[in-house]
Design goal:
Length: 176
């Protein structure tokens, strides 16, 4: 408001200066040099007032800009304050130990899933293959029961099998 009032004052002085300048010219034409000189001094004084008014307007505009910027800063500070309060509440809800525990559980679950994926994909390591073969050998040795080996020595010649005499032919047996 003050800025607007100063601008109106500035316009009035500018108009007044123009009138006094025209009046000073007229007085000079009429030969009234001293009155013209007095009017020019008055005009000069009003020009100085006009400059002061311009400086005051600049100061007021700068002040308005500073106030607006300060209001923006206040909003930023209020936003930071609210953000800090939210962070503090979140920190109260979750402690570092809780976060570390959750991350540990997540890493364990990821590792377990990776192992399952490797098994399903058949990408076993050499150690895994060796362990599997060892387990397979242990299982097969538990299940197999070998027959006892005869303690008698084997004959050197195998006797020829004698043909069975008087054995009926299978076709005849079935027909009777």
């Amino acid at each position: 408001q003050q800025r607007d009032k100063l601008k109106q004052y500035q316009k009035r002085i500018s108009l007044h200066l123009e009138k006094e300048r025209a009046l000073a010219r007229q007085l000079l034409k009429e030969g009234k040099k001293e009155k013209a000189m007095l009017l020019l001094k008055k005009k000069r004084y009003q020009e100085q007032l006009l400059d002061k008014t311009e400086n005051q307007i600049s100061n007021l505009e700068r002040m308005v800009q500073d106030i607006e910027f300060t209001q923006i800063e206040m909003k930023v500070i209020e936003g930071l304050k609210i953000g800090n309060e939210c962070l503090n509440k979140m920190h109260q809800v979750m402690s570092i130990e809780e976060v570390e525990r959750i991350i540990g559980e997540t890493q364990d679950a990821v590792e377990y899933q990776r192992q399952i994926d490797e098994i399903l994909a058949g990408s076993l390591t050499e150690e895994d293959e060796d362990a599997i073969l060892e387990e397979l050998n242990a299982i097969t040795q538990e299940q197999i029961e070998l027959p006892e080996v005869p303690s008698e020595p084997l004959p050197e010649e195998i006797p020829e099998a004698s043909p069975v005499k008087n054995r009926p032919k299978p076709e005849l047996v079935a027909a009777s």
